């Protein structure tokens, strides 16, 4: 398992694990749904639905990795950096820095 001294060092590796366009799209869909669901949960105060957030977010991402990217998600080896990478990539997609 490769070690990283900082997120700055990790993020290029993270992007290299997301070269497949469908995988990146599935990440974007999952992250978007997490934002929508979290907004709904806060608005309705239906806190039990918080349990579905990881299923939604990671479910789409893992389908992208296992079936399209054909690699293991970085979540298994670098959980914190991977979680942060998901949101930085989401932002970079919105800003047009990463193509979907």
UniProtKB/TrEMBL annotation:
InterPro entries: Mpo1-like. Keywords: Membrane, Transmembrane, Transmembrane helix. The chain crosses the membrane at residues 26-43, 49-68. Pfam families: Mpo1-like. PANTHER family: DUF962 DOMAIN-CONTAINING PROTEIN, TRANSMEMBRANE PROTEIN. This is DUF962 domain-containing protein. The lineage of its organism: Bacteria, Pseudomonadati, Pseudomonadota, Gammaproteobacteria, Alteromonadales.
